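Hey, I'm writing a tutorial for new members on how sequence and structure tokens pair up, and I'd like a real worked example in the thread rather than a made-up one. If someone can provide the structure for the chain below, I'll link this post from the tutorial.
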Amino acid sequence: MTNFLIQYDFQKMRSTIFLMMVLGTSLVYGQTEFIFNENGLDPKYAIANLDSTPATELYQKTRKWIENTSTNATLALDTEIENDFIHFTGIKDNAIKVGKGYLHMKYTVKVSFKKGLYKFEPLEILTKVNSKYDMGWKAIDLNNGSVFFKKGKAIKKTKSYVTSIPAVLNELNAKLYKYLRTR
């Protein structure tokens, strides 16, 4: 019986340590993952905690990140108010697979700064068919995802939208966060 109790306590302790590690990791990073559901993009923005880094430093580093990233990808600074916020636009080629074809994704993001925090807020998502013919950009409603869902589940034809849009935004936010943490 005592052997069973010792084994039970060990299991309980191991579960507690694992739970503390998971919670600790999520609290340290403080980032939120975007998802796309019937209500659109959720959450509408992500706030990341960067200790007590001054807003001016976060602004300057973000500006530098955009400049460095724009040499490798299609990323451009749109508008800015120094030390307050930056709007930028980027394009992810072949971001969404639809049937046998692909869609390019164009996104506009606003990054706002306060001491120790930045707010990553996607403002607009546009898609365009990857084709030799220019069919123009089509807007995705970030506040209403019901066209991609039926009875609470993603429609098979549009499931790639539901997974790809937040994946691109999460990847972008993670890259910015990593850049701000390491520099």
